[in-house]
Every structure is written in C-alpha cells, then in structure tokens.
Amino acid sequence: MSEDRLRRTLAAGEILFHQGQQGHAAYVIESGAIEIFSERDDVRQVIAQLGNNDIFGEMALLGDAVRSASAAALEPTQLLVVTHEHLNERLLGADPMTRHLLRTVVLRCREMLAWMRASGAARVPPERMGALADADEVESTDRELAFRRLRTEQELEAALERGEFQLYFQPIVRLSDRKVAGYEALIRWFKPGHGMVPPSEFIPVAEASSLINRIGLWILETAFDSLMKMDAAAGAREEPIFVTVNLSARQLTDPELLPALSMQVERLKGRNCRIKLEVTESLMIGNVVEVQLFIAHCRDLGVHVLLDDFGTGYCSLSYLHLFEVHTMKLDRSFVRGMAVSDASEKVVRGVTRMAHDLGLNVVVEGVERLEEADQAAALGIDYVQGYFYGRPAPLADALKKLVG
Ligand code: C2E
Ligand code: CA
Ligand code: CA
C-alpha cells in the first residue's frame, strides 16, 4: 500500500467527506483539527471539534453505512487512514468474544445515532458529555497505545517498500575447530531520523498483523541471496556453510511460505550450503500439528529446522520427540547459569547428552567470554554463538571473515 493511501493531508477548510457519502475509511488525527458537522437546509450544525489522536469516521468502517455527518479541516491537518481492509484483518485476528462485543457496541451506537437524529438531538446532551469525558480519560492510555501501534504498522509497511530493512549476520562457531560454521540472520530496521530500531520493538507489531508474512518473505529471499554470496566467498569447504532464519508463528500458516522456500531452495542446487529455519519452543508447543506438518514439508525440501530459545518456555524434554528438529539452541540463560552453579552445569550436560541421543546438534547462544566457550566445549556442546565470537553485523563483515 502506498504511503498516500495511509496518510491524508488537508488544507484549512478542506472537506474530507460529506454526509450521505459511502465511507471506506476511518481517520486518526496526527496533527491539526477536524470539525464534524451536519448540514440541514444548508445550515451547518457543528457536532464536534476533534484534535490530536481523536478517531472519527469509524462508524462507516464497521459496516456498509453511509457517513452520518460531514468532516472538514479547521486548520492544516495530517491524518492517518485506517482502511476497511486493515480493520477486517484485525477483526479476523481477534478472538470471537472481542468480535462479538465490537459488533454489539457498533449496533448500539447506530441505534443511538438514529434516535438522536429522529428526536432532533444533533449534539450529545450535556449530562451525557460528562460521562463520555470520564470514559475518555480511562481510555486515553489505551487509545494512545493503539494509535502508536497503528502508526508503527504503517511505518513498517512503508519501510518494506522503501528498503529500510537490512539483515545482519551473527557467526555460529563450531567448537571442534573454533571455525565459523554458519550465521544467524537477524533483522534490523534503519528508520530515517531515528537510526536503528531493534527487532524487539517492531517484530511483535508486525506479528500482530499479516505484515510479518510479507516481511518474512523478504527475510527469506534476502537470507538466500546472502547465503549464496557467503558460499562463493567461503570457497571449497568440507562442511557446508549455513544461514539460519527466524520464523514467527504466523508465518507457519502463510500459504506463500512453502512455495517461496521451495523456489529459493531450487536456486541453491549444486551449491555446498544450506538454510536452516529457527522455530521457538513456545511456538512449537502452541501449534503441535502445524509444526509437525511444516517440519515434514521442510524435510522434503532438504531444509533443516532448529529449535530456538530452548529453556525459556515450557522446557519440557518430553515433547522433543514429537518434532523432527535437527538442532537445539539453548537460550543464553543457560550460559549465565552454568558459570555460577554446579547444578546448572549438570542440567546443561544432561540436556546436551539427551539431545545427542535423539540425534540433535546443540548450539548455545549468548557466549560473551572465552571461558564460557571453553566450558560449553567441555560439556559436549557442538556450536556457540555470542558477542565473544562476533556481534550481529552487516553481510560485508561476514564475507570478509569468510575470505580471511
Ligand atoms: P533470538 O532469535 O533469540 O536472537 C538472538 C538475540 O540475542 C539477538 O538479538 C542477538 O543480537 C542477541 N545476542 C547474540 N549474542 C549475544 C550475546 O552474547 N549476549 C547478549 N546479551 N545478546 C546476544 P536481536 O538481534 O535483538 O533479536 C532479538 C529477537 O528478535 C530474536 O531473538 C528474534 O526472536 C527476533 N528476531 C530477530 N530477527 C528476526 C527475524 O529476522 N525474523 C523474526 N521472525 N524474528 C527476528
Ligand atoms: Ca533465533
Ligand atoms: Ca534465541
């Protein structure tokens, strides 16, 4: 969606929509002021004057209703556009109870508006105004949060179109020879005027809508492009170099993911390198059947699946046999733990042994010191990842390391 479909700029006095027109969007005021008014017999009757963060036009969004009033800018005004499409997507993602509540509220509001119009009460009666203002106060934090999220979603959409995302790569080192065996691809957003935004700030927003699917496809394609460049830089190797890509829960049900993966794998034919997909423990537990099917499809394509963040969620060893994963990545809390307690060290040793018995490789992340890498090696862990061997960095850095 282009940015002008997401934003509207109005000059002072400009009419946004007229009463009786079909409505296809609601609006949030980013700056400026809007007047909502009705026109009867050419007399303009002001219903409300709205300012920053106010939402309006939402009634037409939740059905096929026409605009019940007109809207015009009182001064130069900047609006965020909330489309029908956008709202429907959110409604489909909401739980049935929320959907039901929303529909009921909308219905009640419609009835009230119809009643007000029939009784000639164009304005909200003064005694109701107080109640509305109180509710407004209670809701203002929610509203602020919701709009900030909406703004980020729209910025992310534009960021994808403008190429503001970049993949960084963090080395994964094989402990047997302490050589780089592969890289984890980690997304970064370079937001103009803000610098780098960490994924923890925008991935959850993208995950809340289907945006993660489009961003995910970009990540996949870029990871394969980068892997091929790494393969060329690495020259002849016995062990294939790999790149791991993080997957979000929603991507598992994206019908475009597997065809895209299959197409990209085709491009690797004849090369000595591979892609692995990182799926978190909590995602697996929440979607057992989907994940099993997904892993089976990946296996048919020759793509390995790696269990990420082991130890942060349910940490139940009993379910591991349900999934044909190839590698298990221990969360960095294990590294911190084994440095300070014998008991933690025993847990790591036990978990590693069990993973090996099940035919899995073991990686531990968050290794920041040489002693931690040495300790991991002594415990039989196969690979380490962490700031000690390298922070996530642009592709050029990885290529330099592979050549050097
Ligand atoms: P994750 O998959 O567990 O990624 C590992 C995180 O640990 C990365 O943070 C990495 O920079 C950080 N890290 C690596 N070594 C060390 C270390 O030695 N010490 C410490 N303290 N931290 C270390 P990052 O890049 O900020 O990513 C955070 C999370 O965002 C990731 O956690 C992952 O869940 C998500 N994420 C990042 N990139 C992607 C992506 O491309 N797709 C998806 N779906 N999620 C992503
Ligand atoms: Ca990961
Ligand atoms: Ca992890």
Structure description:
- With 404 residues, this protein is of the alpha/beta class.
- The chain has 2 domains: 144 residues, Sandwich (Jelly Rolls), CATH 2.60.120; 241 residues, TIM Barrel.
- An 8-stranded mixed β-barrel has the order 9-10-12-13-14-15-16-17, surrounded by 6 helices.
- About 3% of the residues have low confidence.
- One calcium ion binds next to strand 14.
- Ligand C2E binds next to strand 10, helix 6 and strand 14.
Give me a quick take on this structure.
This protein has 404 residues and is α/β, with parallel strands linked by helices.
Q: Any idea what the shape is?
A: elongated
Order of adjacent strands in the largest pleated sheet: 9-10-12-13-14-15-16-17
Strand percentage lies at 25-35%
User: Do you know the CATH topology of the largest domain?
Assistant: TIM Barrel
Q: Sheet with the most strands?
A: 8 strands, mixed, barrel
Q: What percentage of residues falls in helices of 4 or more residues? A: 40-55%
According to DSSP, the number of beta strands is 18
- Name of the top-level CATH class of the largest domain: Alpha Beta
Number of helices: 14
Radius of gyration from CA coordinates:
27 Å
Give the low-confidence spans: 122-134
CA distance, first residue to last residue: 43 Å
CATH superfamily of the largest domain: EAL domain
Mean pLDDT: 86
What is the number of independent domains? 2
* Attached small molecules: ligand C2E, calcium ion
Q: Structural class per helix/strand content?
A: alpha/beta
